[in-house]
Write a structure and sequence with these properties.
3 domains; alpha/beta; 419 residues; Rossmann fold; six-stranded parallel β-sheet; globular; UDP-N-acetylmuramoyl-L-alanine:D-glutamate ligase; Protein-Tyrosine Phosphatase, Chain A
């Protein structure tokens, strides 16, 4: 689409992506409005005042029909659920074109895009792909769901640049023309079933990453995904498979490197030296022989399964948060090494019910801090305290990063007291 024809644009959501969109659209000379369902007191008042001085209009605590009426376009931040009844009804009544943040940014983008999605591992692979591509290209951007909005840097892109984007199913829901040069689906497991009616709807959101690709583009697919043959009939891009006997992430990175003419030995070197990202199997400390691992990024059971499969010491598992409608029983075959399970958050009872017939030591806590301290007091030298929640953070925290930082703070307090 041509952004020129849209003179007044309403952004839904005023968190990181919404703020970035505000700045981008103002820099392009657009008139901007922001509709945010949370109260104004939840946000930075000085930032709001600054935007107001630049002509931005705000409404907080509601998405009102009249606020949208004089706009030409609605842009939705990734965390906003357009299926929410009142919002959906409002947008249907005003009948405005509605897109997401990465879609709008793609209208301005000039770089080749490498877009990576999947249920698990997409943050790690996106970051490693960025490092691999930097070995050959001097201008590589990294953004998307990894925490750097596409809209925050898109005006800097040129045709000689490459942009690596981590893209979520939420972001893919609202694409129209978004077209990656290289698209990748790492894996596909049930997730976000509090937002999607079933796994099929979630799968359809993920596979939208391919819909605008052409014959000169590339689609990378894990050969272990069950619907490969179904996708083969729909995808126009050149299909390349990865996985099999090799580590899936490493195999995917090799395929990305080969597309851009980068030797696989560079991929192996980067992969072997990679120590992990914050909040994903991040070793925090060892106190009296007990190792604490922060896996706050694990927001579904399959992520926790991966963590348990890769630990070889006795584990005390800390889990819980907001339920996403997922089946926790999938973890049962992997809890034989878990000696104690400490649960907290809104989903604690549901998780306990799933595990109680298969584990004898399940404990319920009202706060994360209580669960962590109990884990330490009941651990023995050589044990691992694994914080791998299996749930979203939104019952107690604004995101998994805030949740992970709080866990780190608790562990540091324990270390200061007992070291």
């Amino acid at each position: 689409m041509n952004l020129e024809k849209f003179k007044k644009i309403c952004i839904i959501g005023f968190k990181k992506s919404g703020i970035s969109l505000c700045r981008l659209l103002l820099s392009l000379g657009k008139k901007v409005k922001v509709s945010e369902i949370q109260k104004e007191s939840s946000f930075n008042s000085s930032l709001i005042e600054k935007f107001k001085r630049e002509g931005v209009e705000f409404e907080f605590g509601i998405h009102s029909r009249d606020f949208f009426r004089d706009c030409n376009l609605v842009v939705v931040s990734p965390g906003v659920n357009l299926k929410e009844t009142l919002l959906r009804k409002t947008l249907e009544e005003v009948s405005l074109p509605t897109v997401g943040e990465i879609e709008l940014a793609s209208w301005i983008n000039k770089s080749r895009i490498v877009a990576i999605t999947g249920t698990n591992g997409k943050t790690t692979v996106s970051f490693l792909a960025f490092l691999v591509l930097k070995k050959k290209f001097s201008h590589v951007f990294l953004g998307g769901n990894i925490g750097i909005p596409f809209s925050s840097f898109v005006r800097k892109t040129t045709t000689s640049h490459i942009t690596v984007l981590e893209v979520s199913s939420f972001q893919l829901e609202n694409i129209v023309q978004f077209r990656p040069y290289v698209s990748c689906i790492l894996n596909l497991k049930p997730d976000h079933l509090d937002r999607y009616s079933d796994f099929q709807e979630y799968k359809k959101a993920k596979e939208r990453i391919f819909i605008n690709q052409k014959e000169e583009d590339y689609a990378l697919i894990n050969r272990d995904i069950f619907c490969c043959s179904e996708w083969e009939r729909k995808i126009k891009a050149k299909i390349k498979y990865f996985g099999g006997e090799e580590n899936d992430n490493f195999s995917c990175l090799k395929e990305i490197a080969s597309i851009f003419g980068i030797d696989s030995y560079l991929v192996r070197d980067i992969f072997s030296r990679f120590k992990g990202l914050s909040h994903r199997m991040q070793k925090i400390a060892q106190v009296k022989g007990v190792t604490f691992i922060n896996d706050s990024k694990a927001t579904n059971p399959s992520s926790t399964i991966w963590a348990l499969k890769n630990l070889h010491q006795p584990v005390i598992l800390i889990a819980g948060g907001r339920d996403k409608g997922l089946d926790y029983s999938s973890v049962i075959p992997f809890i034989n090494r878990v000696k104690r399970i400490n649960l907290f958050g809104e989903a604690k009872e549901k998780i306990a019910d799933s595990f109680k017939a298969h584990h004898h030591n399940i404990n319920i806590f009202s706060q994360l801090e209580e669960a962590v301290k109990d884990a330490f007091f009941n651990a023995q030298e050589g044990d691992v305290v694994l914080f791998s929640p299996m749930c979203s953070s939104f019952d107690m925290f604004s995101n998994y990063i805030e949740r992970g930082k709080f866990f780190i703070q608790i562990v540091n307090n324990i270390r200061n007291e007992f070291s």
